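Would you mind writing out a protein's amino acid sequence and the numbers that encode its backbone to help me picture the idea?
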Amino acid sequence: MPAAAQPHRTRNNRLVRTLAVLGTGAAVLALPLVGATSAAAAPTTATTASTTPAGYPNNLDGWIRESLAIMAEKKIPGTYNGIYRNVMRESSGNPNAINLWDSNAVKGTPSKGLLQVIDPTFATYHVVGTSFDPYDPVANITAACNYAAARYGSIDNVFGAY
């Protein structure tokens, strides 16, 4: 490349890198202007991380943390690691998981949600202040931990189907 062309290329590369560092949104809006004679503005849609109504991230980590906060208020024992270990075994982190083949399902009460709770157990151990939907991640975790506390002392003591 001729020496005279290098400064222009370096300047454009710096501009692109700077825009990329400033944020994808700014880069998307500004890049069409580089070397263009006319450009239409890209639509600006702000996206934010999804959160639960209580302000926790709307993902497994947030659901567990929100449940632990509720559990602390209600004096229900359990730890993040105990909950996480059981969620991974029971549903692989899928809040919509449902077991349609085990003995509970055969009797008409399939296990549901992150910690695979059947409806009668969910209703009995439901924790006030959480949803009445067994598929609601926070309600499911909190009810299951309440059940595990009553039956095993804590979700931390559960290492298999319960």
Summary: The longest strand covers residues 98-99. Strands lie at 98-99, 111-112.
